[in-house]
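Submission checklist for the structure archive. All mandatory fields must be present; incomplete records are returned to the submitter.

[x] Identifier: FUSC family protein
[x] Organism: Agromyces neolithicus
[x] Residue count: 355
[x] Sequence attached
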Amino acid sequence: MSPTGAASRLRALRTLEFEVGIRAALAAVIPLVVLLMLGHVELAPYAAFGGMTAIFGRGEHYRARARTVGTAAVALVASVAAGTLLAAADAPLWAEALALVAVLIVGTLVVAVARLGPPTTLFFVFALLVCAEVPTPTDQVAVRIAITALSAAFAFGLSVSGWMLRRFGGERVRAVLKELPKHPPARFDALGDRAVWLNIAQVVLAAVGAGAVALAFGVGHPYWAVVGAIAVVPPPGAAHSLTRARHRVFGTIGGVLVTALILWPDPPVWVLIIVIGIAQFGAEVLVGRHYGAAMLFVTPLALVVSWIASPSDPGGLLVDRVIETVIGCAVGVVLVLAGRFVESRWGRLAPADGR
Protein backbone atom coordinates (compact mmCIF):
# COMPACT_ATOMS: atom_id res chain seq x y z
CA MET A 1 0.00 0.00 0.00
CA SER A 2 1.28 3.46 -0.85
CA PRO A 3 2.17 5.92 1.91
CA THR A 4 -0.75 8.13 0.80
CA GLY A 5 -3.19 5.23 1.06
CA ALA A 6 -1.89 4.24 4.48
CA ALA A 7 -2.25 7.81 5.72
CA SER A 8 -5.82 7.92 4.42
CA ARG A 9 -6.67 4.72 6.28
CA LEU A 10 -5.22 6.10 9.51
CA ARG A 11 -7.25 9.29 9.14
CA ALA A 12 -10.39 7.22 8.54
CA LEU A 13 -9.77 5.15 11.65
CA ARG A 14 -9.36 8.27 13.73
CA THR A 15 -12.44 9.93 12.23
CA LEU A 16 -14.65 6.95 12.99
CA GLU A 17 -13.67 7.12 16.65
CA PHE A 18 -13.03 3.43 17.06
CA GLU A 19 -11.30 4.14 20.35
CA VAL A 20 -14.50 5.52 21.87
CA GLY A 21 -16.58 2.68 20.46
CA ILE A 22 -14.26 -0.03 21.77
CA ARG A 23 -14.11 1.29 25.33
CA ALA A 24 -17.89 1.81 25.40
CA ALA A 25 -18.46 -1.74 24.16
CA LEU A 26 -16.10 -3.21 26.74
CA ALA A 27 -17.73 -1.16 29.51
CA ALA A 28 -21.11 -2.57 28.46
CA VAL A 29 -20.15 -6.20 27.91
CA ILE A 30 -17.65 -7.14 30.63
CA PRO A 31 -19.94 -6.37 33.63
CA LEU A 32 -22.72 -8.34 31.92
CA VAL A 33 -20.39 -11.32 31.42
CA VAL A 34 -19.55 -11.20 35.13
CA LEU A 35 -23.27 -11.18 36.04
CA LEU A 36 -23.89 -14.08 33.64
CA MET A 37 -21.11 -16.10 35.27
CA LEU A 38 -22.56 -15.35 38.71
CA GLY A 39 -26.03 -16.41 37.58
CA HIS A 40 -27.63 -12.98 38.09
CA VAL A 41 -28.19 -11.71 34.57
CA GLU A 42 -31.55 -10.26 35.70
CA LEU A 43 -29.48 -7.43 37.22
CA ALA A 44 -28.19 -6.44 33.79
CA PRO A 45 -29.82 -2.96 33.71
CA TYR A 46 -27.87 -1.83 36.78
CA ALA A 47 -24.55 -2.88 35.26
CA ALA A 48 -25.56 -1.39 31.90
CA PHE A 49 -26.34 2.01 33.38
CA GLY A 50 -23.04 2.09 35.21
CA GLY A 51 -21.28 1.14 31.99
CA MET A 52 -22.82 4.16 30.25
CA THR A 53 -20.17 6.19 32.07
CA ALA A 54 -17.80 5.27 29.23
CA ILE A 55 -19.80 7.15 26.59
CA PHE A 56 -18.91 10.47 28.22
CA GLY A 57 -15.62 12.34 27.75
CA ARG A 58 -15.34 11.17 24.15
CA GLY A 59 -12.24 13.04 23.03
CA GLU A 60 -10.91 15.04 25.94
CA HIS A 61 -7.45 15.27 27.45
CA TYR A 62 -7.23 12.99 30.43
CA ARG A 63 -7.29 15.57 33.21
CA ALA A 64 -10.51 17.07 31.84
CA ARG A 65 -11.83 13.59 31.04
CA ALA A 66 -11.35 12.46 34.64
CA ARG A 67 -13.52 15.39 35.71
CA THR A 68 -16.30 14.96 33.17
CA VAL A 69 -16.44 11.17 33.25
CA GLY A 70 -16.29 11.17 37.05
CA THR A 71 -19.17 13.64 37.14
CA ALA A 72 -21.20 11.50 34.75
CA ALA A 73 -20.49 8.39 36.86
CA VAL A 74 -21.79 10.07 40.01
CA ALA A 75 -24.89 11.32 38.17
CA LEU A 76 -25.66 7.87 36.74
CA VAL A 77 -25.23 6.13 40.10
CA ALA A 78 -27.38 8.76 41.79
CA SER A 79 -30.11 8.34 39.17
CA VAL A 80 -30.08 4.55 39.57
CA ALA A 81 -30.15 4.93 43.35
CA ALA A 82 -33.17 7.25 43.17
CA GLY A 83 -35.04 4.91 40.83
CA THR A 84 -34.20 1.84 42.91
CA LEU A 85 -35.38 3.51 46.12
CA LEU A 86 -38.64 4.52 44.41
CA ALA A 87 -39.17 0.93 43.29
CA ALA A 88 -38.42 -0.51 46.72
CA ALA A 89 -40.84 1.93 48.36
CA ASP A 90 -43.50 1.18 45.74
CA ALA A 91 -43.73 4.96 45.36
CA PRO A 92 -46.83 6.52 43.78
CA LEU A 93 -46.75 8.10 40.34
CA TRP A 94 -46.55 11.64 41.70
CA ALA A 95 -43.34 10.78 43.59
CA GLU A 96 -41.79 9.34 40.43
CA ALA A 97 -42.80 12.50 38.55
CA LEU A 98 -41.16 14.70 41.18
CA ALA A 99 -37.98 12.62 40.97
CA LEU A 100 -38.04 12.96 37.18
CA VAL A 101 -38.34 16.75 37.39
CA ALA A 102 -35.52 16.89 39.95
CA VAL A 103 -33.20 14.80 37.75
CA LEU A 104 -34.00 16.99 34.74
CA ILE A 105 -33.30 20.25 36.58
CA VAL A 106 -30.20 19.16 38.47
CA GLY A 107 -28.94 17.04 35.57
CA THR A 108 -29.23 19.86 33.05
CA LEU A 109 -27.32 22.22 35.35
CA VAL A 110 -24.61 19.59 35.97
CA VAL A 111 -24.26 18.95 32.23
CA ALA A 112 -23.98 22.67 31.50
CA VAL A 113 -21.54 23.48 34.32
CA ALA A 114 -19.29 20.43 33.81
CA ARG A 115 -19.60 20.66 30.00
CA LEU A 116 -20.46 16.99 29.69
CA GLY A 117 -20.53 15.42 26.28
CA PRO A 118 -22.95 14.17 25.13
CA PRO A 119 -24.65 17.30 26.55
CA THR A 120 -27.91 15.68 27.66
CA THR A 121 -29.70 14.34 30.72
CA LEU A 122 -31.24 11.53 28.64
CA PHE A 123 -29.11 8.77 30.19
CA PHE A 124 -29.78 9.96 33.74
CA VAL A 125 -33.52 10.02 33.09
CA PHE A 126 -33.44 6.62 31.41
CA ALA A 127 -31.64 5.14 34.41
CA LEU A 128 -34.09 6.68 36.88
CA LEU A 129 -37.25 5.54 35.09
CA VAL A 130 -36.16 2.03 34.19
CA CYS A 131 -34.94 1.29 37.72
CA ALA A 132 -38.14 2.75 39.17
CA GLU A 133 -40.14 0.22 37.12
CA VAL A 134 -38.18 -2.90 38.15
CA PRO A 135 -39.72 -4.63 41.20
CA THR A 136 -37.13 -4.33 43.97
CA PRO A 137 -37.16 -6.04 47.38
CA THR A 138 -35.89 -3.75 50.14
CA ASP A 139 -32.94 -6.02 50.89
CA GLN A 140 -31.79 -5.75 47.25
CA VAL A 141 -31.49 -1.95 47.11
CA ALA A 142 -27.87 -1.74 48.27
CA VAL A 143 -26.81 -4.64 46.04
CA ARG A 144 -28.27 -3.06 42.91
CA ILE A 145 -26.78 0.34 43.62
CA ALA A 146 -23.41 -1.31 44.33
CA ILE A 147 -23.50 -3.12 40.97
CA THR A 148 -24.06 0.21 39.24
CA ALA A 149 -21.23 1.85 41.17
CA LEU A 150 -18.79 -0.97 40.41
CA SER A 151 -19.72 -0.94 36.73
CA ALA A 152 -19.31 2.85 36.63
CA ALA A 153 -15.91 2.60 38.30
CA PHE A 154 -14.82 0.02 35.73
CA ALA A 155 -16.05 2.25 32.89
CA PHE A 156 -14.20 5.21 34.41
CA GLY A 157 -10.99 3.17 34.47
CA LEU A 158 -11.44 2.24 30.82
CA SER A 159 -12.10 5.86 29.89
CA VAL A 160 -8.83 7.13 31.33
CA SER A 161 -6.68 4.09 30.51
CA GLY A 162 -5.79 5.31 27.01
CA TRP A 163 -3.13 7.65 28.39
CA MET A 164 -0.85 4.61 28.75
CA LEU A 165 -1.18 3.78 25.05
CA ARG A 166 -0.50 7.38 24.08
CA ARG A 167 2.47 7.64 26.40
CA PHE A 168 4.11 4.25 25.88
CA GLY A 169 2.61 2.89 22.66
CA GLY A 170 5.05 4.47 20.24
CA GLU A 171 4.51 6.66 17.20
CA ARG A 172 2.60 4.02 15.22
CA VAL A 173 0.00 3.59 17.99
CA ARG A 174 -0.32 7.33 18.55
CA ALA A 175 -0.86 7.84 14.82
CA VAL A 176 -3.92 5.57 14.89
CA LEU A 177 -5.46 6.94 18.07
CA LYS A 178 -7.66 10.01 17.92
CA GLU A 179 -5.99 13.32 18.70
CA LEU A 180 -7.19 14.85 21.95
CA PRO A 181 -8.19 18.52 21.73
CA LYS A 182 -8.09 20.73 24.76
CA HIS A 183 -11.31 20.82 26.75
CA PRO A 184 -12.59 24.06 28.32
CA PRO A 185 -12.86 24.24 32.12
CA ALA A 186 -16.08 23.99 34.08
CA ARG A 187 -18.47 26.88 33.46
CA PHE A 188 -20.20 27.94 36.66
CA ASP A 189 -21.80 30.99 35.04
CA ALA A 190 -24.06 28.49 33.23
CA LEU A 191 -26.15 28.51 36.41
CA GLY A 192 -27.43 31.95 35.38
CA ASP A 193 -27.57 31.38 31.62
CA ARG A 194 -31.10 31.90 30.31
CA ALA A 195 -30.42 29.45 27.47
CA VAL A 196 -29.84 26.76 30.10
CA TRP A 197 -33.04 27.63 31.93
CA LEU A 198 -35.01 27.69 28.68
CA ASN A 199 -33.66 24.20 28.03
CA ILE A 200 -34.71 23.09 31.53
CA ALA A 201 -38.24 24.38 30.90
CA GLN A 202 -38.34 22.56 27.56
CA VAL A 203 -37.16 19.17 28.83
CA VAL A 204 -39.37 19.29 31.94
CA LEU A 205 -42.48 20.14 29.93
CA ALA A 206 -41.56 17.63 27.21
CA ALA A 207 -40.95 14.81 29.70
CA VAL A 208 -44.06 15.42 31.80
CA GLY A 209 -46.22 15.97 28.71
CA ALA A 210 -44.99 12.86 26.91
CA GLY A 211 -45.38 10.74 30.02
CA ALA A 212 -48.94 12.00 30.57
CA VAL A 213 -49.94 11.29 26.96
CA ALA A 214 -48.43 7.81 27.10
CA LEU A 215 -50.26 7.01 30.32
CA ALA A 216 -53.52 8.37 28.89
CA PHE A 217 -53.23 6.03 25.90
CA GLY A 218 -52.46 3.11 28.20
CA VAL A 219 -49.44 1.91 26.24
CA GLY A 220 -46.87 -0.11 28.15
CA HIS A 221 -43.37 1.21 28.94
CA PRO A 222 -44.32 4.94 29.11
CA TYR A 223 -40.73 5.86 29.94
CA TRP A 224 -39.87 5.35 26.26
CA ALA A 225 -42.09 8.35 25.47
CA VAL A 226 -40.32 10.45 28.10
CA VAL A 227 -36.89 9.50 26.77
CA GLY A 228 -37.99 10.14 23.17
CA ALA A 229 -39.24 13.62 24.03
CA ILE A 230 -36.03 14.57 25.86
CA ALA A 231 -33.89 13.24 23.00
CA VAL A 232 -35.57 15.57 20.51
CA VAL A 233 -35.00 18.77 22.51
CA PRO A 234 -31.56 20.21 21.61
CA PRO A 235 -29.03 21.21 24.30
CA PRO A 236 -28.80 24.84 25.47
CA GLY A 237 -27.85 27.25 22.71
CA ALA A 238 -28.06 24.68 19.90
CA ALA A 239 -30.16 25.20 16.78
CA HIS A 240 -33.79 24.11 17.20
CA SER A 241 -33.94 21.72 14.25
CA LEU A 242 -36.68 19.13 13.65
CA THR A 243 -34.31 16.81 11.80
CA ARG A 244 -33.41 14.95 15.00
CA ALA A 245 -37.07 14.00 15.54
CA ARG A 246 -37.34 12.49 12.06
CA HIS A 247 -34.08 10.62 12.52
CA ARG A 248 -35.22 9.25 15.88
CA VAL A 249 -38.61 8.04 14.61
CA PHE A 250 -37.39 6.36 11.44
CA GLY A 251 -34.18 5.12 13.06
CA THR A 252 -36.22 3.60 15.88
CA ILE A 253 -38.53 1.83 13.42
CA GLY A 254 -35.50 0.38 11.65
CA GLY A 255 -33.94 -0.55 14.99
CA VAL A 256 -37.14 -2.32 16.07
CA LEU A 257 -37.05 -4.44 12.92
CA VAL A 258 -33.43 -5.35 13.68
CA THR A 259 -34.36 -6.20 17.27
CA ALA A 260 -37.21 -8.42 16.06
CA LEU A 261 -34.74 -10.47 14.02
CA ILE A 262 -32.58 -10.82 17.14
CA LEU A 263 -35.21 -11.69 19.78
CA TRP A 264 -37.74 -13.86 17.98
CA PRO A 265 -35.37 -16.83 17.50
CA ASP A 266 -35.01 -16.76 21.33
CA PRO A 267 -31.19 -16.83 21.38
CA PRO A 268 -29.21 -17.70 24.52
CA VAL A 269 -28.17 -14.87 26.82
CA TRP A 270 -24.51 -14.99 25.79
CA VAL A 271 -25.56 -14.19 22.21
CA LEU A 272 -27.54 -11.20 23.46
CA ILE A 273 -24.52 -9.94 25.38
CA ILE A 274 -22.49 -10.05 22.16
CA VAL A 275 -25.31 -8.12 20.45
CA ILE A 276 -25.13 -5.48 23.20
CA GLY A 277 -21.40 -5.05 22.63
CA ILE A 278 -21.80 -4.70 18.86
CA ALA A 279 -24.71 -2.30 19.27
CA GLN A 280 -22.82 -0.12 21.75
CA PHE A 281 -19.81 0.04 19.46
CA GLY A 282 -21.91 0.91 16.40
CA ALA A 283 -23.87 3.57 18.27
CA GLU A 284 -20.73 5.36 19.46
CA VAL A 285 -19.07 5.25 16.05
CA LEU A 286 -22.12 6.61 14.20
CA VAL A 287 -23.79 8.99 16.65
CA GLY A 288 -21.63 11.95 15.66
CA ARG A 289 -22.08 11.27 11.94
CA HIS A 290 -25.75 10.40 11.45
CA TYR A 291 -28.24 10.21 14.32
CA GLY A 292 -30.74 8.12 12.38
CA ALA A 293 -28.12 5.51 11.53
CA ALA A 294 -26.97 5.45 15.15
CA MET A 295 -30.56 4.66 16.23
CA LEU A 296 -30.31 1.40 14.29
CA PHE A 297 -27.84 0.36 17.00
CA VAL A 298 -29.20 2.33 19.97
CA THR A 299 -32.67 0.77 19.70
CA PRO A 300 -31.53 -2.89 19.80
CA LEU A 301 -29.12 -1.99 22.61
CA ALA A 302 -31.86 -0.55 24.83
CA LEU A 303 -34.45 -3.20 23.99
CA VAL A 304 -32.14 -6.17 24.46
CA VAL A 305 -31.00 -4.88 27.87
CA SER A 306 -34.65 -4.45 28.89
CA TRP A 307 -35.56 -7.90 27.61
CA ILE A 308 -32.70 -9.62 29.46
CA ALA A 309 -33.87 -8.04 32.71
CA SER A 310 -37.52 -8.99 32.16
CA PRO A 311 -38.14 -11.47 29.31
CA SER A 312 -41.59 -11.06 27.77
CA ASP A 313 -43.38 -11.25 24.46
CA PRO A 314 -41.02 -9.50 22.01
CA GLY A 315 -43.93 -8.31 19.89
CA GLY A 316 -45.48 -6.24 22.67
CA LEU A 317 -42.14 -4.76 23.68
CA LEU A 318 -41.29 -3.73 20.12
CA VAL A 319 -44.71 -2.26 19.34
CA ASP A 320 -44.63 -0.27 22.57
CA ARG A 321 -41.23 1.12 21.62
CA VAL A 322 -42.47 2.45 18.26
CA ILE A 323 -45.70 3.94 19.65
CA GLU A 324 -43.97 5.55 22.62
CA THR A 325 -41.19 6.97 20.44
CA VAL A 326 -43.73 8.59 18.12
CA ILE A 327 -45.57 10.07 21.11
CA GLY A 328 -42.36 11.34 22.68
CA CYS A 329 -41.02 12.84 19.48
CA ALA A 330 -44.36 14.56 18.74
CA VAL A 331 -44.37 16.20 22.18
CA GLY A 332 -40.68 17.05 21.80
CA VAL A 333 -41.32 18.75 18.47
CA VAL A 334 -43.97 20.94 20.11
CA LEU A 335 -41.40 22.07 22.69
CA VAL A 336 -38.78 22.65 19.98
CA LEU A 337 -41.22 24.93 18.16
CA ALA A 338 -42.03 26.66 21.44
CA GLY A 339 -38.31 27.20 21.98
CA ARG A 340 -38.06 28.81 18.54
CA PHE A 341 -40.87 31.17 19.47
CA VAL A 342 -39.22 32.14 22.77
CA GLU A 343 -35.90 32.74 21.03
CA SER A 344 -37.58 34.94 18.45
CA ARG A 345 -39.00 37.04 21.26
CA TRP A 346 -35.79 37.21 23.27
CA GLY A 347 -33.44 37.54 20.32
CA ARG A 348 -30.82 34.96 19.54
CA LEU A 349 -29.54 33.40 22.79
CA ALA A 350 -25.79 33.14 23.26
CA PRO A 351 -24.45 29.55 23.06
CA ALA A 352 -24.15 27.91 26.46
CA ASP A 353 -20.40 27.35 26.09
CA GLY A 354 -19.77 31.04 25.49
CA ARG A 355 -18.35 30.62 21.98
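[x] Structure attached
Curator remark: Residues 110 and 116 are 8 Å apart (CA to CA). Confidence is low (pLDDT under 50) at residues 349-355.
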